[in-house]
């Protein structure tokens, strides 16, 4: 991936996700105080249990988000979407990181440090409401994840997971079948069978470590069908 300039990063983040929902003055301040960072494939952005820190916004690339209840091992839940920010819990609770964020491919992010967030909040009480919006956007996404995991048929859960990954853009999805299985609560055998079925239907193309969705609409329709009929 070619390096992304500061100006291009700010343009991307101003058009997607959280920042376009904010007042112009606040958005400008977030961008001014944020640090542009680059991560290599497999490099962690933060780990479970790390001291409280600031928020990260995904400019380009792909990140894996692994979460877990207290005392449990984090499991892969989703892939980050360009424009999405995360890490807000530390600012709101002052507690250590509750999950893990890791670059899957070459990835560029904007990082707003915790001390910068505190300075902004000291001057503008609306900072708390703006940051809480990140939390609510994440909750809405997790509602979708929970809804998908409650589907009784494994192949429809798998279709749901694959369709959600199209939100990162029209690029090969850097997931193994084992990782798809974790996200869909399905066995490797079930994932194998589903991907073969979807490939034969022309909905995707599959290689060893990536999946390219060629017909996201068909996947979505299949995922949402009532299999009991």
Poorly predicted segments: none
Number of strands: 10
Gyration radius (Cα, Å) is 18 Å
Our count of domains comes out at 2
Query: Beta-strand percentage?
Result: 15-25%
For the terminal residues, how far apart are their CA atoms?
46 Å
What is the helix content?
A: 40-55%
Structural class: alpha+beta
Mean pLDDT over all positions: 91
CATH H-level superfamily of the largest domain: Jelly Rolls
Topology-level CATH name of the largest domain: Jelly Rolls
Task: Give the count of helical stretches.
Answer: 9
What's the architecture of the largest domain in CATH terms? Sandwich
Can you summarize the main beta sheet?
4 strands, antiparallel
Q: Could you spell the SSE succession in H and E letters?
A: HHEEEEEEHEEHHHHHEEH
Q: In order across it, which strands form the biggest sheet?
A: 1-8-3-6
Basic shape: globular
- CATH class (first level) name of the largest domain: Mainly Beta
Q: Would you mind describing this structure in some detail?
A:
There is one protein chain. The strands form three sheets. This protein has a four-stranded antiparallel sheet. It has two domains: 6-147, Sandwich (Jelly Rolls), CATH 2.60.120.10; 151-224, Orthogonal Bundle (Arc Repressor Mutant, subunit A). It has 229 residues and is of the alpha+beta class. 45% of the residues lie in helices and 19% in strands. Helix 6 packs across helix 7 (177-184).
């Amino acid at each position: 991936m070619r390096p992304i300039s500061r100006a291009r990063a700010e343009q991307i983040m101003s058009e997607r996700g959280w920042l376009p929902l904010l007042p112009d003055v606040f958005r400008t301040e977030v961008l001014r105080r944020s640090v542009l960072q680059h991560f290599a494939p497999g490099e962690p952005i933060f780990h479970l249990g790390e001291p409280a820190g600031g928020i990260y916004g995904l400019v380009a690339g792909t990140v894996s988000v692994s979460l877990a209840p207290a005392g449990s091992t984090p499991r892969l839940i989703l892939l980050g979407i360009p424009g999405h920010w995360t890490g807000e819990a530390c600012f709101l609770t002052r507690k250590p990181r509750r999950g893990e964020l890791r670059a899957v491919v070459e990835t560029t992010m904007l990082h707003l440090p915790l001390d910068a967030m505190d300075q902004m909040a000291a001057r503008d009480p609306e900072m708390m409401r703006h940051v809480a919006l990140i939390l609510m956007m994440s909750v809405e996404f997790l509602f979708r994840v929970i809804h998908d995991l409650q589907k009784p048929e494994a192949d429809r859960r798998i279709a749901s997971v694959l369709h959600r990954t199209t939100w990162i853009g029209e690029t090969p999805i850097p997931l193994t079948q084992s990782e798809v299985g974790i996200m869909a609560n399905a066995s490797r055998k079930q994932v194998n069978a589903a991907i073969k079925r979807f490939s034969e239907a022309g909905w995707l193309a599959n290689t060893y470590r990536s999946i390219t969705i060629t017909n996201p609409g068909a996947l979505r329709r299949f995922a949402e069908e009532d299999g009991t009929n």
